[in-house]
Design a protein that fits this description.
Blueprint (H helix, E strand, L loop, with lengths): L2 H13 L18 H14 L1 H18 L7 H16 L3 H14 L5 H5 L3 H8 L23 H19 L4 H17 L2 H18 L2 H16 L4 H17 L3 H18 L11 H15 L3 H18 L2 H17 L3 H18 L2 H17 L3 H17 L9
Helix pairs in contact: 2-3, 3-4, 4-5, 4-7, 7-8, 8-9, 8-10, 9-10, 10-11, 10-12, 11-12, 12-13, 12-14, 13-14, 14-15, 14-16, 15-16, 16-17, 16-18, 17-18, 18-19
Length: 405
């Protein structure tokens, strides 16, 4: 085809709006409107399945080459997200999971994309492609033996999906509960008490936020009993954490403080981090509830020092979810001391962090505290509006604990 004929064809396609205008930053590159791609993609997927899979297989290989082997920024990481999605569309589930998602996106047990880059929403958009028709808990099945997900693969996907769902949609996210229920069944079938403990920790969190405290305590005790038999330091910290928080909300602050101190002591001796599939660092949570318990006993200086340590450790671990948790407790302590300046500063930090990482729960909490400090500073109208918006957003997460009906 002569160049003039090629340009004529391109011009006709652009007039028909099937091609986008030429990008001045990328001359010669062709693109089209996303809706056009979506339309023809659906036609290909529904009518020519083999061609659809082959297209995605080629894109899977192509996107992998666009990113560094171990990307250090979200922008560099984006082609790998696309690679996993295309790999799943091509039916290359195990290849996409092990060669890209685990090895290059999360970097094994480091949770790199989640903790370091804060890419929780992109991770969810990737993980959903391992589930049938976007239904959390219903993992895909394939006839290709080499690409089918074994039980260990399924456990990893379910637990990581649950953690990301909790991070973005709150502890009462029903999708997270579904993932944990499926995980619990898998652990029983595999006779894997260690991962069963992790699944029960997720179930405990959901129970704590949505059910009666007696029900949450039953699950917390199951976690504790199971963890004792594993001789795993990190799981024991998780177990102590579960007992401490449930006792705290039951009003038994002394017992809660004792359990948090047990967990913190173990962590300081061994430097254990939370179990690999956990996104939320339990030592930070333990420090937060110890600080809150200290405050209830009038030990203000100890409470402030402990919460400062929690914030420092969360930053050191690069765990944004844990940092949000610690900032919330810090602003709550400042609010309890009627320190308006600190509440204003900390609520701004929490709102900024939550907006950047799409933490809906913590965004709602930060908005409520911002409303309080605005009201306390004389701007009552703006303050009440912030408080009311925060309450609505908080209730929308489904959490019942700490919310007055």
């Amino acid at each position: 085809m002569r160049p003039s004929e090629w340009q004529t064809i391109l011009a006709k396609l652009r007039r028909a709006r099937l091609l986008a205008g030429e990008d001045p930053h990328n001359p010669g590159q062709l693109d089209t409107h996303p809706l056009v791609r979506e339309y023809f993609g659906e036609q290909l997927c529904n009518q020519q399945t083999d061609a659809w899979k082959e297209c995605n297989r080629r894109l899977f290989n192509h996107y992998q080459t666009l990113a560094p082997q171990l990307p250090d920024s979200l922008r560099e990481m984006e082609p790998l997200f696309s690679a996993v999605i295309c790999g799943c569309n091509a039916g290359l589930f195990r290849e996409a999971l092990h060669e890209v998602y685990i090895a290059r996106i999360q970097r094994g047990n480091a949770w790199f994309a989640a903790n370091v880059l804060g890419a929780i929403e992109p991770l969810l958009s990737v993980l959903i492609h391992f589930f049938e028709q976007g239904r959390w808990g219903s993992l895909v099945e394939t006839a290709a033996e080499k690409q089918s997900l074994n039980a260990e693969d399924q456990l990893l996907i379910l637990t990581q999906a649950a953690q990301c769902l909790i991070a973005t949609r709150g502890y009462a996210a029903p999708e997270a509960r579904i993932c944990y229920e499926r995980t619990e069944l898998l652990c029983h079938s595999l006779d894997n008490p260690q991962l069963l403990c992790v699944a029960l920790i997720g179930r405990w969190r959901y129970s704590l936020m949505t059910e009666k405290l007696t029900a949450a305590m039953q699950v917390a005790r199951r976690v504790y009993t199971l963890a004792q038999g594993q001789h795993d330091v990190a799981l024991m910290i998780e177990a102590y954490n579960g007992l401490a928080i449930t006792l705290f909300f039951s009003g038994d602050f002394e017992s809660a403080r004792q359990w948090t101190m047990h967990a913190i002591e173990i962590w300081r001796l061994g430097g254990a981090r939370s179990y690999a599939v956990e996104l939320h660092s339990s030592v930070v949570t333990c420090l937060c509830y110890k600080a809150a318990s200290d405050w209830y006993f009038g030990e203000i200086a100890s409470a402030q020092a402990t919460i400062a340590e929690a914030i420092s450790i969360a930053k050191e671990l690069k765990d944004m979810q844990a940092l949000a948790h610690a900032l919330h407790f810090a602003e709550h302590l400042a609010y309890s001391e009627r320190n308006n300046a600190d509440v204003d500063r900390l609520s701004s930090d929490l709102i900024e962090l939550s907006t950047r990482n799409n933490f809906l729960l913590w965004l709602a909490v930060g908005t409520m505290h911002r409303g309080w400090v605005r009201s306390a500073s004389g701007n009552t109208t703006e303050g009440i509006l912030c408080i009311e918006q925060g309450i609505r957003d908080f209730r929308a997460t489904g959490i019942r604990l700490t919310v007055a009906n």
